């Protein structure tokens, strides 16, 4: 699992996208993507499970930060922001 503040890096951009889940087990889903100062892209997924007999209110779960990729040296952050916004993500 990746750590946001590892090795002194900082967040440059953060995007979120919420949606109705496409599963029989969940009713809500959020994907969070962050671009770090060391050019690493981190991704996290959160869901809310449907209520059942053991958990009548449903429960939330997160899979934590995972490395989703790297950005090439000298990449334009404005173009990266436009790319994510064109796919339904909102900048946070």
Describe this structure in words.
The protein is mainly beta and 92 residues long. The protein has one domain. It contains one helix and six strands, in the order E-E-E-E-E-H-E. The protein has one helix spanning 77-86, and strands at residues 11-19, 26-36, 40-49, 60-62, 66-70, 90-91. Strands 1, 2, 3, 4, 5 and 6 form a six-stranded antiparallel β-sheet that branches. A hairpin with a 3-residue loop joins strand 2 and strand 3 (40-49). The longest helix is centred in the last third of the chain and has 10 residues, at 77-86. It is elongated, with a radius of gyration of 15 Å.
Brief overview:
The chain has 92 residues and is mostly beta strands.
Percent of sequence in beta strands:
35-45%
DSSP E strands, number: 6
- On the 0 to 100 scale, the average pLDDT is 89
Task: Work out the radius of gyration.
Answer: 15 Å
Q: What characterizes the major β-sheet?
A: 6 strands, antiparallel
Query: Which ranges are low-confidence, i.e. pLDDT below 50, for 5 or more consecutive residues?
Result: none
Question: What is the helix content?
Answer: 10-25%
Broad structural category: mainly beta
> How many DSSP helices?
1
Terminal CA distance? 22 Å
Cα shape: elongated
- The tally of structural domains comes to 1
- The succession of helices and strands, N to C, reads EEEEEHE
